[in-house]
Amino acid sequence: MDDQTDQTRKPRADAIRNRERVLEAAKAVFSAGGPEASLEAVAKRAGVGIGTLYRHFPTREDLFEAVYRREVEQLSELAEQLKSAKDPVDALRRWLRSGVEFVATKKGMVAALALAVQSGSELHAFSFDRLTKATGSLLDRAVAAGEMRADISPEDLLRAFFGMCYIHDQPGWQSTALRLLDVFVDGLRVQPKSSPRGPAKTKSRATKRKR
Amino acid sequence: MDDQTDQTRKPRADAIRNRERVLEAAKAVFSAGGPEASLEAVAKRAGVGIGTLYRHFPTREDLFEAVYRREVEQLSELAEQLKSAKDPVDALRRWLRSGVEFVATKKGMVAALALAVQSGSELHAFSFDRLTKATGSLLDRAVAAGEMRADISPEDLLRAFFGMCYIHDQPGWQSTALRLLDVFVDGLRVQPKSSPRGPAKTKSRATKRKR
DNA sequence: TGTTAAGCGGAGGGTGCCTCCGTATCTTCC
DNA sequence: GGAAGATACGGAGGCACCCTCCGCTTAACA
User: Fold this and answer.
1) CB contacts < 8 Å between A and B, how many?
2) pLDDT of B44-61, one tens digit each?
3) What residues are paired with A189 via a beta bridge?
4) Of B111, B121, B169, the CB nearest to A169
């Protein structure tokens, strides 16, 4: 798009490498320890000095933001891949399930992201837009195939998804969320005329709660 | 209910006083500085030593929780008072507006509360229950007076309220939220047959954005 | 009024934040 | 290939905050 035609040198190789390392380490550390995690721990894990970390990401928020962007992009790419799956409804379902897993494994990350989203609304806009597009592309395909009702917007779907993940601190939340998602996707489905409402085939209906 | 009949001394007067002071100070400091605010600042503002603060509230979360409980109770009491107002619809509206103000003035507090709610679900249950009851009592009165539709539950109303405050980081959010609330309350109203929809009388429609 | 335990304050050791600057390394130009 | 200069690196150091610990103070009770 806009390559800087200023006579700026291209960035040094080690700088690029270090930036990458820090991002990788930050993702791991924040996932485990939440948004409060020590930046010095991040630097150590990345194998760089604390000064280097601060040069690349002057504030904690900058670092969050960078990690966040990357995660969102990754989710979007998954949607891209799923677009070539055979069954469009299943593709959508799989994507949403990945979203749950994303929330589950990131744990601390989620709180961090919430923080990041609070502080900068530009980032919020970016990610919402990105996820909406990803959802939309999967949704459209299912609708085009005549397998889903057409009156649900990607935004609605996203909101529903976030709503279902809202309980992500309760004990058995993950299986609950997955079950809700299944029900929801079933509801999105164009009902076959034969059965007014096909039973949702709840697999693992056990309300297994661990601690 | 259960006064301790054990032969325990009654708590010392200074202990009670100090606990109160710390709570007061914490409310102020967290409101201004958010959940990260220094506990030492809280102690200083309360005019007690840091050790005293930690004795009363061993962890940061304990302190949050105590402040939170008290705030929720205060909101509930406001509802109690409003129940004796003449116009039941107006009472409900006023209560909701107070909720917006609550969110607005507390600013940092809100993030803190979110944290507190995350960590302990018992607290969450308590506060949700409390607020639901408060909302319900106001809602019921309006419905009983024949001025509001009867098919909205207090929970729904609360959820809608939280949804409208969700944007509480955007610049002009407060006037937006108040406007949304007005519209919503109008919508709850039993429509008089004469006018199909009374205009919502948007006062201050300026989208004043500061910063 | 004396006894006693509950409560108080703040010093201090530990950790993390962030800045600053001498040193090391990469890029560019010859 | 080598010199020059820009760019990036690392980590010491000053500061703020966290939380514990313990000698001193003071309220409750007899």
Assistant:
1) 11
2) 999 999 999 999 999 998
3) A148
4) B121
